[in-house]
Every structure is written in C-alpha cells, then in structure tokens.
Amino acid sequence: MALKRRGPEPGPEAIEVPDDRRWNHNGHYHRVILAAIPEGAGTALDVGCGEGVVTRALRARVPSVTGLDVDEPSLVLARRQGPPDVRYVLGDLLTHSFEDETFDVVACVTALHHLDFAAGLRRMAELTAPGGVLAAIGVARRRWPHDLPWDLAGAVATRVLRRKHGEWHTPAPKVWPPPLTFAEHRRTAREVLPGSEFRRHVLWRWSLVWHRPRAQR
User: Fold this and answer.
1) Could you read off the pLDDT of 3-12 as tens digits, one per residue?
2) Residue 68: inside a domain, yes or no?
3) What is this structure's pTM?
4) 48, 103, 130, 180: least surrounded by Cβ within 10 Å?
C-alpha cells in the first residue's frame, strides 16, 4: 500500500464547501458514527480525522473532542475551520501516548486500512472508556465475481446520489488498494471485538459498532 496525495498540497479552496454540502461515499455513512454516540458522552477521538469533517460533527454533540492524523497539511485545514476548542494532534493511532479508557467515543472513517486492521481495532478498543462506543466506517478490497451484485447496486445508487448532491473530494492523502476483503474485515472484527456489529453497505463501505461494557462495581 502507498500513501498518496491527489494533486498539490491543499490550499484554502479545499475547505470552501460547507460541511453539510460535502457529500461523498464516506460522508453518506457519517450518520452511523453519530447515531452510535452514547447518551452523556463527554469525550471523543476521531482517528484519521483528515480536515475534520467528522471531528466537527462530533464536537456538535460531545463537549471535548480530539482529532488525530499523521498528515500535517490536513490538520492545518482542520484547524482553520475550527471550532477553536477542538484539539488536533499529529500522530499515529498505534504509537501515540493516549491513556487507555480515555474516550467515550472512538471514531474512525476510512483510515483503518492505512494500518494493520486487527492492531488498529485493538488500540481503538483500549482507548474506549467503559460504557463507551467504538464506531468505524471502512473500505475493502472487492472480490470478483462475488462482489458484482454489490458493485452494480452501488453504481446505480451513486449515480442517483451524485445527481442530487454533487460530490466533494477530500484533499487528504489516500491509501489504495485496501488490503482486506469485506469477508476478511468481518472475520477479523468478530475475532478482535466479539459482540461488535459489522454491516456491509451499498456504497462500497462497511460499518462497525462496538459497545464497551460498563465497569463492574
């Protein structure tokens, strides 16, 4: 896998589109992340936050939010857009020195294929506080001809949604292709996070939601 940035370093024009008009395949499923936020959540971490679209959506619902990314230019764009009380951190999920059980919400949108999937899930689970939630959206390597019906459905849905919303392309770097298939993601999720809910979606995405049990008194 290779980390690739599309085009030159992003400038101010990359953030001119308001968040509520930034439709793309990832953004279509941000609602899965937001719907998983537990009542009374006080802290959240957005892993691979990029220019901060999900981070800002989390901040609208959670008082203390941190965005984490390895790409400094993306964090520059995120900080420009505020709000000023969001903390943006340059670092890697697997090596940054967050304390365990720190966050009521640990979210990640299409960044787990940038690293070892099982290791990423384990670290996110370690950072999730008792009673908190881990919620992720991801991409997978397609397998032919098994995935053909899904691809056809996704192509039709994309055409309709693009006509309605247009499409916004994030300036964040990309890693492609994803190393694991949908089935491999599902199997690994079940092994690492028993009881997690893994779903495959039409627009070439999967979602995972895992609730950490509350601490026993």
Assistant:
1) 444 444 445 5
2) yes
3) 0.92
4) 130
